[in-house]
Amino acid sequence: MAEGTIKRLTDKGFGFIDTGTSQDMFFHMSSLEGVTYDELQEGQRVSYTEGSGPKGPRAENVRPV
């Protein structure tokens, strides 16, 4: 599993993970495991699996480290 830092959270239930590369990874609250969307904070470390969505790459199985 890859790791990154939550860069931005929105009021619409999705956010972006700073992967340490030039491209951030999109995630939706339906991809969370072991945590609710409201418990997440910007700057928090998370692990994830890279998947594919209708608009490109997205993070799946997102969980706090």
Explain this structure:
By secondary structure, the chain is mainly β. The protein has one domain: Beta Barrel (OB fold (Dihydrolipoamide Acetyltransferase, E2P)), CATH 2.40.50.140. The chain has strands at residues 2-9, 14-18, 25-28, 45-53, 56-64. The chain has a five-stranded antiparallel beta sheet, with no helix packed on it. The radius of gyration is 10 Å and the shape is globular. The chain starts with a strand and ends with a strand. The relative contact order is 0.32.
List keywords for this structure.
OB fold (Dihydrolipoamide Acetyltransferase, E2P); 5 strands; 0% helix; mainly beta
Query: Which class do the helix and strand fractions yield?
Result: mainly beta
The CATH class name reads: Mainly Beta
Shape: globular
Low-confidence stretches: none
Task: Please name the fourth-level CATH homologous superfamily.
Answer: Nucleic acid-binding proteins
The DSSP helix count reads 0
CATH architecture assignment? Beta Barrel
Tell me, rounded to a whole number, the average pLDDT. 96
CATH topology: OB fold (Dihydrolipoamide Acetyltransferase, E2P)
Number of extended strands: 5
- Biggest sheet, strands in spatial order? 3-2-1-4-5
- End-to-end C-alpha gap: 11 Å
Q: Report the β-strand fraction as a percent range.
A: over 45%
Q: What is the radius of gyration?
A: 10 Å
Question: How are helices and strands ordered from N to C?
Answer: EEEEE
- What count of domains describes the coordinates? 1
Largest sheet: 5 strands, antiparallel
Helix content: under 10%
